[in-house]
Design a protein that fits this description.
Distance between the termini: 29 Å
Number of domains: 2
Strand order of the largest sheet: 3-2-1-4-8
Number of strands: 12
Radius of gyration: 18 Å
Structural class: alpha/beta
Shape: globular
Number of helices: 5
CATH topology of the largest domain: Nucleotidyltransferase, domain 5
Largest sheet: 5 strands, mixed
CATH architecture of the largest domain: 2-Layer Sandwich
Length: 243
């Protein structure tokens, strides 16, 4: 059943909106379709939704899509484990209460995701609930089967299995800042992460399109623009800002 699904990644950028759909096939991942739409400063969410609705009509019913959330609008923090053993629901409430207190924000204004931290405690990712709800609304209104809203930098983790030996992670420039991922960590910075390989089409770069075993031309001329969308389609179907 999994092989029938199209797994898609959507990246809404300042000047463009790109989406790519993949499908698991024998020997790896197969490209099924890609879409691209230029955006202007006057573009509205209604305009974006109308475009997404057109793209949705070119997808099968069995699809799921992950949408990128700008990592610059998120906060990551390690919280120590509580002193008491808590049930899952109590644990989640304790985490969001702790984050809200530290950020001096109302709990209802936060969306969050957490996992066990390597050195103990919890690794928590928090985002503004309004940012997450905005993306979810666009996907719902377009009729898309939303699987996850994921920070764009964390999506790069999907490329790690394809990196050359010795690479200390992967970095990609989004036109304004560098997004990076290494090990279980990710973030954004003014420079590529130390020891990382850079996503691109240069001779010494890591080309994300090489992660696919089946490509169907024509391919986009500006393939680098699809880096985050491709990463999401490969492995970004777990919410990193659940709420």
């Amino acid at each position: 059943m999994t092989y029938r699904y199209w797994q898609a990644g959507l990246h809404i950028q300042d000047d463009a909106m790109v989406c790519i759909a993949l499908q698991q096939a024998r020997g790896g991942w197969a490209l099924r379709r890609w879409w691209q739409q230029a955006l202007t400063p006057d573009s509205t969410d209604a305009d974006r939704t109308a475009t997404l609705r057109k793209w949705r009509r070119e997808m099968p019913v069995q699809h799921r899509i992950a949408v990128a959330l700008p990592a610059g609008g998120t906060l990551r923090k390690v919280l120590p484990a509580p002193g008491l053993v808590l049930r899952d629901s109590e644990q989640a409430q304790w985490i969001i209460s702790s984050m809200a207190q530290q950020l001096e924000m109302a709990e209802a204004s936060l969306a969050f995701d957490y996992c066990q931290a390597t050195r103990g405690g919890f690794q928590v990712t928090a985002a503004r609930q309004q940012d997450v709800l905005r993306l979810r609304k666009m996907a719902k209104d377009a009729g898309l089967n939303l699987a996850a809203v994921t920070p764009d930098a964390s999506a790069l983790l999907a490329f790690l299995p394809w990196l050359p030996d010795g690479a200390g992670g992967v970095s990609w420039f989004d036109g304004d800042r560098w997004l990076w991922a290494a090990g279980e960590e990710w973030g954004c910075a003014d420079h590529p992460a130390p020891g990382s390989v850079v996503c691109g089409s240069g001779i010494n770069d890591f080309d994300p399109w090489h992660c696919l075993s089946q490509l169907q031309p024509p391919l986009p001329v500006n393939g680098d623009t699809f880096t985050i969308a491709l990463a999401l389609a490969l492995g970004g179907h777990r919410d990193a800002a659940a709420g």
